[in-house]
Design a protein that fits this description.
Length: about 160
């Protein structure tokens, strides 16, 4: 998939480079020429894109996080389909993941600087009826100010009210 998309376009977005790949999707860094900003595009795994349950889960992720408006939750900008690919466009967070930083020593103050905003983001999501269900260091992005941003609500479910 990366060779198909890298250097190309998906919808109005100009694909720049692959950022990562998981079982569900591949994430690319891209440029939105309409709004003149860098974005991340999560593209549904090519071989599973035709599976209705898989596409439903992907769409549920987009809907779940699009409803949320919190500084420590990844913001969704767009959802689309193009060239047989289904994708979600989100803000681009350039500081890597918490997993990337786990080799560094953290004192209590540093740990709380990460955990407190994550707890507040989860509290906000829960109050909005969303459970993340996949909290792990690779799903916590770190922005340039070393603030955590919770990503990948792919396993989220709407809680019964």
């Amino acid at each position: 998939m990366s060779s198909i998309l890298e250097g190309g376009r998906l919808g109005r977005y100009h694909i720049q480079e692959q950022l990562g790949r998981g079982g569900m999707a591949t994430v690319f860094k891209a440029r939105d020429p309409s709004l003149n900003r860098t974005v991340a595009i999560k593209v549904l795994a090519f071989l599973r894109a035709d599976e209705p349950a898989f596409r439903e889960r992907f769409g549920r992720e987009a809907q779940a996080i699009a409803r949320l408006n919190h500084p420590n939750i990844l913001q969704v900008f767009d959802v689309g389909e193009d060239k047989g690919f289904t994708y979600i466009v989100t803000e681009y967070v350039s500081g890597g993941t918490l997993l990337d930083r786990l080799g560094s020593p953290y004192n209590l103050e540093d740990s709380l600087r990460i955990l407190r905003p994550l707890a507040e983001a989860l509290d906000y999501a829960h109050a909005s009826g969303i459970v993340h269900r996949d909290i792990k260091p690779s799903n916590v992005l770190m922005n340039d100010d070393a603030e955590p941003v919770l990503a990948d609500f792919g396993l989220s479910v709407a809680m019964e009210q």
